[in-house]
């Protein structure tokens, strides 16, 4: 199981009240379907090393194009 899952709901939910096909006596107390906040943190941390260099500012002025079409 992933970190933070299943996530406790702030208050219990009766899915039948939302028009689902669940029996009326079923009450959900935990979310096991959607990612938890902890899972989002883990994904962001895993992507940080790859994304950080892509977000770095580009050098200015830009380097001349290798095909010689940069003018001059």
Task: Describe this entry's structure for a reader.
This protein has one helix at residues 37-54; strands spanning 7-13, 28-31. Strands 1-2 form a two-stranded antiparallel ribbon. It is 25% helix and 15% strand. The mean pLDDT is 86. With 72 residues, the protein is of the alpha+beta class. The chain has a domain at 7-49. It has 1 helix and 2 strands, in the order E-E-H.
- Report low-confidence residues grouped into runs of 5 or more: none
Distance between the termini: 60 Å
The overall pLDDT, averaged over residues, is 86
Q: How many DSSP helices?
A: 1
Residues in β-strands, percent? 15-25%
What would the keywords be for this entry?
72 residues, alpha+beta, two-stranded antiparallel ribbon, 2 strands, elongated
Map the helices and strands.
Elements: E1 7-13, E2 28-31, H1 37-54
Antiparallel strand pairs: 1-2
Short summary of the structure?
The protein is α+β, with helices and mostly antiparallel strands.
């Amino acid at each position: 199981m992933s970190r933070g899952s299943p996530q406790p709901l702030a208050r219990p939910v009766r899915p039948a009240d939302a028009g689902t096909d669940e029996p009326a006596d079923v009450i959900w107390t935990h979310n096991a379907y959607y990612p938890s906040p902890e899972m989002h943190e883990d994904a962001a941390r895993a992507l940080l090393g790859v994304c950080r260099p892509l977000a770095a500012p580009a050098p200015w002025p830009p380097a001349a194009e290798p095909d010689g079409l940069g003018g001059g």
